[in-house]
Specification:
The complex is a heterodimer.
Chain A (H helix, E strand, L loop, with lengths): L2 E3 H15 L3 E5 L14 H5 L4 E3 L4 H13 L3 E5 L10 H8 L2 H4 L9 E6 L24 E3 L4 H13 L4 E6 L6 E3 L13 E4 L4 E5 L3 H14 L4 E5 L2 E3 L3 H11 L2 E8 L4 H13 L8 E5 L8 H7 L3 H12 L2
Helix pairs in contact in A: 1-6, 3-4, 7-11, 8-9
Chain B lengths: L8 H26 L14 H9 L6 E4 L4 H6 L4 H8 L23 E4 L6 H14 L6 E6 L6 H12 L4 E7 L2 E2 L2 E2 H4 L16 E5 L3 H16 L5 E6 L19 H8 L3 H4 L8 H24 L22
Parallel strand pairs in B: 1-2, 1-3, 3-4, 4-8, 7-8
Antiparallel strand pairs in B: 5-6
Classes of the chains: A alpha/beta, B alpha/beta.
The structure holds thiamine diphosphate (TPP).
Chain lengths: 324, 328
């Protein structure tokens, strides 16, 4: 199969959906030239400035415009340049897009997709390196996708654009330039369906976003030590594929969750609680969460390194778990 | 004198009726709230009716409205059924939103009442989005966005005016300047006395109008709507008005933050008096209209009170269009 980069896969998804459905349009800061992460680059050549356009720097209104236009039957896909800026438009995402349908008793709906990159970039410090996935898991009415591979990025974005509900599509800066296999022919990745990247019998590693690669790296090291891990990526946090997680843990009897955001109040806490609530009896060892330290992301690269999870930490935690 | 003053007797009577409809509806809501029949909170617009009625008069049936937490009048003026509205305020299954929205979020999408926003100012970017969709879809409709004076102090006001002006969106921003945001007077919250002057910053028309005079509001709204419909872009219409009752939850009309004298002075300019200052409506007309409206409101209350509570199972409905949740 051909290999393309994550950013290219996203661009293909946008282009294909724009070709398929003339209601789809993209806008945001610097999207005409495709800054800052190149996803929208070149789209304007095919689709013109009416469907690919720059906005002022006003995140709240960028998303508000998506809310209003989606309610009118359009399919807006705004880009919020860094996920650290999502708090600026949190009201429009959480209070408006995710709530107005419910409050109206189902009279209106909001088929919009807010795309935004999260996570480490390298030296971008505390206001441009955050991973805010967990903040948005607490919002009924919203759907949240976090693709880890070019294949999933494309398939999930196409599904998100076709979805009738508001979707927050959280990408990863450090994945944009990573290639992976993506079929030429059209496909969709449904929301709420986890992907098993590898199967093993000794433990389940649930990994999200960029951490999928780290979990896979760790599991290769572990395999040489005779420990085989299942690596499972939920791909969408809302809806969450609880069934896949629980089934896997029931088979392997051990669970580790790896995420790029801080541990406290994180995605891992939610998944760990789910496992504890539903299948505690099948566990042979405590559940472990591996996450970023509860610190703002520092500028210095060594400090920055120490904040984020890496394969080495995953291996250590698993070795410890296997001693139970 | 504006040419609008020449409207026919029958039209004048109709406008009077609409003003009275909003007035009686709101008074009833206030009463029901005080009796404990309405749960939560209500924000009524008694005294401000000329804005909702005057703006609605300038709209076509297919135009669209984004309203505020004080949105009963806007919803009624889109032609919503008062019975279904009252049922919603009582939280009933038959309510416009099935009892899930209530007073602050009264919506009647079929009639172009797209949303009533509980978060101050946040309807404004959404209205810009509605306007953008209308423009992209090459439809000749217009979106009116109501907001309060205090909403003009937040970011969404400026952001939305900027993009709407920049992209020439068919939106009319209507400020209902009732001089207070909760208990805080405009003097303490806004650096300018006339919110309309801020339109200058975005190179669009900013018009101050007497918000107690339904014909004056209609007159200016008509111009702004025409401009929007012709693709010339947004306007900012500021209606100077006053609420005769408290901010919400049945709080008092005066004291501690407003004086009785101020209230009395504004009541001399009651929209129901101003519309008939030339005496074109006879006392018989007025009486007749009063009777029609009272019956309509009583009917609405009866309908709402008789309506069933929502089924408990509906609590998990309407969260998503496509549920697609995990098969847990
Ligand atoms: C962003 C936000 N802040 C605070 C509130 C609480 N609140 C509800 S109404 C209101 C006053 C609004 O004043 P104004 O915009 O002038 O409208 P009015 O109530 O006078 O119609 C406030 C502060 C809110 N709903 N939203």
């Amino acid at each position: 199969m051909r290999e393309i980069k994550y950013a290219e896969a996203l661009r293909e998804a946008l282009a294909e959906e724009m070709r398929r459905d003339e209601r789809v349009f993209v806008f945001g800061e610097d999207v005409e030239l495709g800054y800052a992460f190149t996803v929208c680059k070149g789209l304007i050549d095919e689709f013109g400035p009416e469907r690919v356009f720059d906005t002022p720097i006003c995140e709240q209104t960028i998303v508000g415009v998506a809310v209003g236009s989606s309610m009118m039957g359009m399919r807006p896909v705004p880009e919020i340049q860094f996920c650290d800026l999502l708090p600026l438009c949190m009201d429009q995402i959480c209070n408006q897009a995710a709530k107005l349908r419910y409050m109206s008793g189902g009279q209106v709906s909001f088929p919009l997709v807010v795309r935004s990159p999260a996570g480490r970039w390298g030296g971008f410090a505390a206001q441009h390196s955050q991973t805010l996935d967990a903040w948005f898991m607490n919002v009924p009415g919203l759907k949240v996708a976090v693709p880890a591979t070019p294949y999933d990025a494309k398939g999930l974005l196409k599904a998100a654009i076709r979805d009738e509900d508001p979707v927050l599509f959280i990408e990863r800066k450090l994945l944009y330039q990573i290639p992976g296999p993506v079929p030429e022919e059209e496909y969709i990745v449904s929301f709420g369906e986890a992907r098993t990247h590898r199967e093993g019998s000794d433990l389940t590693i649930v990994a999200i976003g960029r951490m999928v690669g780290i979990a896979l790296e760790a599991s290769e090291v572990l395999e040489r030590e005779g420990v085989t891990a299942t690596v499972l990526d939920p791909r969408t946090l809302i809806p969450l594929d609880k069934k896949a997680i629980l089934e896997s843990v029931t088979k392997t009897h051990r669970a580790v969750i790896v995420e790029e955001g801080p541990k406290t109040g994180g995605v891992g806490g939610e998944i760990a609680a789910l496992i504890a609530e539903e299948v505690l009896d099948s566990l042979d060892a405590p559940i472990r969460r591996i996450a970023a330290l509860d610190a703002p992301i520092p500028f210095n690269s060594a400090l920055e390194d120490s904040v984020f999870p890496n394969a080495h930490r995953v291996v250590e935690v698993v070795r410890d778990l296997m001693s139970f | 004198m504006s040419e609008i003053r020449k409207i026919s007797e029958s039209r004048l009577r109709e406008l009077y009726k609409r003003l009275l409809m909003v007035r009686r509806f709101e008074e009833k809501v206030d009463e029901l709230f005080r009796k404990g029949k309405i749960y939560g909170t209500v924000h009524v617009s008694v005294g401000q009716e000329a804005v909702a009625v005057g703006v609605a008069e300038a709209l076509r049936a297919d135009d669209l409205v984004i309203a505020t937490h004080r949105g009963h009048g806007h919803c009624l003026m889109r032609g919503a059924d008062p019975r279904l509205m009252m049922a919603e305020l009582l939280g009933k299954a038959t309510g416009l939103c099935g009892g899930k929205g209530g007073s602050m979020h009264i919506v009647d999408a079929k009639r172009g009442m797209l949303g009533a926003m509980g978060i101050v100012g946040e309807g404004m970017p959404i209205a810009a989005g509605v306007g953008l969709a209308l423009k992209m879809q090459k439809r000749e409709q217009v979106c009116v966005c109501f907001f309060g004076d205090n909403a003009s102090n937040g970011g969404p006001f400026h952001e939305s005016l900027n993009v709407s002006a920049l992209w020439k969106l068919p939106v009319v921003f209507v400020c209902e300047n009732n001089l207070y945001g909760l208990s805080v007077p405009l003097k303490k919250t806004s650096a300018v006395e006339d919110i309309a002057v801020q339109a200058k910053a975005y190179d669009i028309p900013g018009i101050v109008v007497d918000g107690m005079d339904v014909l004056a509001v209609y007159d200016e709204a008509r111009k702004a709507v025409r401009r929007a419909r012709r693709g010339k872009g947004p306007s900012l219409l500021e209606c100077k008005t006053y609420r005769f009752l408290g901010h919400s939850r049945g709080d008092p009309a005066y004291g501690p933050y407003r004086s009785k004298e101020e209230l009395v002075a504004w009541k001399k300019r009651d929209p129901l008096l101003v519309i008939n200052k030339d005496g074109r409506l006879s006392p018989e007309d007025v009486k007749e209209v009063e009777k029609e409206v009272s019956e309509m409101i009583e009917q609405a209350v009866r309908y709402a009170e008789k309506s069933p509570e929502p089924d408990a199972g509906t609590v998990l409905e309407d969260i998503y269009v496509q549920e697609r949740c995990s098969p847990s």
